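Following the same procedure, the fold was encoded as tokens, giving this record:
***
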Amino acid sequence: MNLERIKPHFPWLTLLALALLVGIANPSFLVPSSLLSLVADIVPLFIMALGMTFAIYIGGIDLSVQQLANMVTVIATVYLAQFGASVAVICILAGLLFGAVSGYVTNRLYVPSFVSTLAMGFIALSVAKYLSGQRALYMDATLRDANFGWMFGNTAGVPHELVIAVFLLALAWFLQKKTTFGRALKAIGSGEPAAVASGLNVVRVKVLAFAVSGAFAAIAGLMFSVKLSGGDANLANGFLLLAIVAVLVGGTPLTGGVGGVINTAVGTLIVMVIRAAMVYVEISATQQQMIFGVVLIIAIALTIDRSKMQIVK
């Protein structure tokens, strides 16, 4: 069998194989209620990875998403009493703005995306520390429940977090597959010089891609804040690596052009299963990060398009 023909199906096959292995080792893992709970628990991570997919899909990367989420947890906590539910709009606009600036710096000032987004992440971290006074903040429980309590309820046993995740996945899929923006993203990721030659406004599209990434990171931060009832400049720490792993393991390579948001959904589920397996065998949090680092290296090695990295002599 041609390996290249089955390569696009590796994420699904990996997910099924891992789920079966964990299910055999721990039968309670496959209980529907347990699975729903595990999936609901990773929704903020999934939303963060979903937004990052747009940056990676064009051959870039967004290293600011973790710090943007941290900043938004503080913004939501500090301004909830003043703006009520409208604070969500402020949070998303903040993420959109930071992402757009990252895209502008990358594509107008020609700073590599890993540098520009890392720098914007440090700026977001500074904003979070300034607004929080470098301390953990706590939300007023009454205000939180009145404005955002619906986010973490359930209907007919289905957590509302999953409904939010499915809605955002559908929105991201629509942007990727059914709009000129999405087609432009694919063209840029597949070959930027050809996209430029075809007359695409590459800079505008790439700035929008980073803006979308920032907006989704902000939504993830808002969910972190509401779920944990507070804000902190370190609240989402540890999720950057997992978000990158989710995108790459799902089959969207750093070289861009293939994969997409559905792949990221599969990749996030793979991350969930791996985490569940490590918890089951009592692997410490520090060792988990090490394992995900190894998984990241393997994912890059398996998915990257080396033809785009060949040096022209």
About this structure: The mean pLDDT is 91. The longest strand covers residues 137-138. Strands lie at 137-138, 154-155, 158-159, 230-231.
